[in-house]
Fold:
Amino acid sequence: MSKHNKKHQTGYEELAEEQAAEEQAEEMACEAKEETPAQSQEPDYREQYVRLYAEFDNYRKRTEREKAALIAYGKKDFALKMLPMYEVLLRQQRALQDKKEQDHKALQDGMRMILTELDKAFKTEGIQKMEVVGKPYDPATQEVVAMIPAPADQEGLVIDEVKMGFMMNGQVLRPANVVVGQTNEGK
Structure:
């Protein structure tokens, strides 16, 4: 079990202990009320059962939500660690394809197989690469690292991608670092 999971499990244990202490305090308060001579009625076990059942059901639902959130966080952390390697492989594959030399055939085939496997793994986790070159700049998914002079028809378009961007389940996992075209009139 990782340190992160142990930390959260310890947090859950502390939360459970606090809840148990609160329940015990409530029980003691109820017992004190029942012991007063003015009240000689039987305790309402059905009401206590219903209340306890509702508290347990709320606890179960809360822990399921927290578990799902922890799993999603772990996936995101893993994906962020894998993205640089994936990016390097993609760039190297492009460089090798540009050379078109037969000496690199085995290397190209090996890289293609690795990338195929990474693509499958990323697709399973809902991770996909953003396609940004030639499209309008989007501040929600991209960070501008430079603006270069461009013809009027390329004003505001992404000219180059410095660092690839990725989405995970429709949300930005890592924004793309891009170079955007700007006409001289925009200065």
User: Anything to note?
Assistant: The chain has three helices and six strands. The first strand starts at residue 127 and ends at 129. The longest helix spans residues 45-99. The chain has three domains: 3-79, 84-126, 129-182.
